[in-house]
Amino acid sequence: xxxxxxxxxxxxxxxxxxxxxxxxxxxxxxxxxxxxxxxxxxxxxxxxxxxxxxxxxxxxxxxxxxxxxxxxxxxxxxxxxxxxxxxxxxxxxxxxxx
Length: 98
Hints:
This protein is an all-alpha fold. It has five helices and no strands. The protein has helices spanning 8-24, 31-41, 44-52, 57-70, 86-94.
């Protein structure tokens, strides 16, 4: 994904979604992060689309907050560099080759 090909507003929304996921300790950026970011940035197009779809902004924001709090949180800052639990590494060393 080349973020430089996105519009400035799209880049801002994506960056905001990334930051929101990071602060919440989520391992992935979900659509709920992006939609929350779009609403937070306050774009007239977003407000226009919500009104055309007859969606109440306050109710949508409440739903998004519930969805965000339901997402799993990572217990490790960077799961890729986390050490392997001892019980698994011991099994790997003692298991006979297949």
